[in-house]
Specification:
Rossmann fold; Dihydrodipicolinate Reductase, domain 2; six-stranded parallel β-sheet; about 25% strand; binds NADP nicotinamide-adenine-dinucleotide phosphate
């Protein structure tokens, strides 16, 4: 363990989950920053953090912080990541990494020019069951992988002011939920080559449902669903010519899976035994990268996060969702 000193930017829902997982993993949670002093102090008290800052600027300027975890709404990720990088801090940025590909490209350029790590907090990629899924595929057990099928569907608040529905905050099922199956299909099958998307747009102009069909550079296809209106199975399948992997609910969190051959023989059963929510694995990966002097993730290079944002831009255009920042 390198003992990177973590600073948490923003004190909302996911910041709490992440801080809890850092604590479970025994990592060094050094500081927190919030727009409001009371929130920073309450968060610091909850997690035993020594330094509470009443602005994001003060957090990134704290000389005792090495890496900033950015947990603000996606519409603010660009601004906050640039702030942290300008201050010389590495960044782990919540998904969706930005509102669009243009913003993500700017972060990549600044991180590269400063020699700092920029990494998207697509925690699913770093989970132990996903490590095993990739090993099985690389070992040829599935044969030629032809398809990925996955949903990320939840029944979430319909309040127009809620982050998920407010366009100004980057609301929409695609950027909050759909990014998981898109990133997963990308991981397994490679770049999305052709994309068709249809969906439903709610009263605020944010998408509430999206169905995505894509062809991939690796030759396979994917069929993906995101919904913030109704909870579905939340399972994923990787289908090959010799066998398939069925990942149980909730596939994007620590999950069990089965590998079954085309003749119905059970080839492997994987049971998940992960402490906490599972967000610590991406943090451990970030620590290892920095310790070995690298500034990009091998599991999810930032260039791939940018390319995924470009695909999400394309899907959003097909759904007819435009953020006010883009007008
Ligand atoms: N990895 C996951 O499983 C997961 C799950 C849920 C969400 N997320 C991602 O994490 C990010 C935050 O989501 P969340 O659910 O934690 O949101 P949330 O509960 O609404 O918290 C967001 C926090 O961002 C800060 N903030 C800065 N500018 C803001 C603004 N203009 N309006 C509102 N809040 C602002 C606030 O912290 P202060 O008041 O302390 O400044 C607020 O508490 C999103 O990008 C989301 O996609 C990831």
């Amino acid at each position: 363990m390198t003992g990177l000193r973590w600073g948490i930017l923003a004190t909302g829902g996911i910041a709490h989950a992440f801080a809890n997982d850092l604590r479970i993993a025994g990592l060094n949670l050094t500081a927190v920053g919030s727009r409001r002093r009371e929130s920073a102090e309450a968060f610091a008290a909850e997690f035993g953090i020594r330094r509470a800052h009443s602005s994001y600027a003060a957090l990134v300027d704290d000389p005792d912080v090495d890496i900033i975890y950015i947990a603000s709404p996606h519409s603010r990720h660009h601004e906050h990541a640039m702030l942290a990088l300008e201050a010389g801090r590495h960044v782990l940025i919540e998904k969706a990494v930005t509102l669009d590909a243009e913003e993500a490209t700017a972060i990549q350029a600044l991180a590269q020019s400063r020699g700092l790590l920029a990494m998207e907090a697509m925690w699913t990629r770093y989970l132990p069951h996903m490590v095993r899924v990739r090993e099985i595929i690389a070992g040829g057990v599935l044969g030629d992988v032809r398809a990925v099928v996955a949903d990320h569907t939840q029944s979430l608040p319909t309040d127009p002011a809620h982050r998920l529905n407010a366009l100004e905050l980057g609301g929409g099922a695609l950027l909050d939920l759909g990014i998981y199956p898109v990133s997963f299909a990308w991981d397994i099958l490679g770049t999305m080559a052709g994309i068709r998307a249809v969906g439903t747009v709610g009263p605020t102009g944010a998408d509430t449902e999206a169905v995505i069909a894509a062809t991939h550079s690796g030759g396979g296809v994917s069929s993906l669903i995101a919904s913030s209106r109704a909870a579905g199975p939340n399972v994923a399948h990787v289908i090959g010519t010799r066998a398939r992997i069925d990942i149980d609910a909730v596939w994007y969190t620590p999950a069990s899976f089965r590998v079954t051959s085309t003749d119905g023989t059970l080839l492997e059963k994987y049971a998940s035994e992960t402490a906490g929510r599972g967000m610590q694995f991406q943090a451990l990966a970030a620590e290892e990268l920095v310790a070995s002097g690298r500034t990009d993730s091998d599991l999810l290079p930032f260039g791939e996060s940018v390319a995924i944002m470009r695909a999400l831009d394309d899907i959003r255009a097909q759904l007819g969702v435009v953020y006010p920042q883009e007008r």
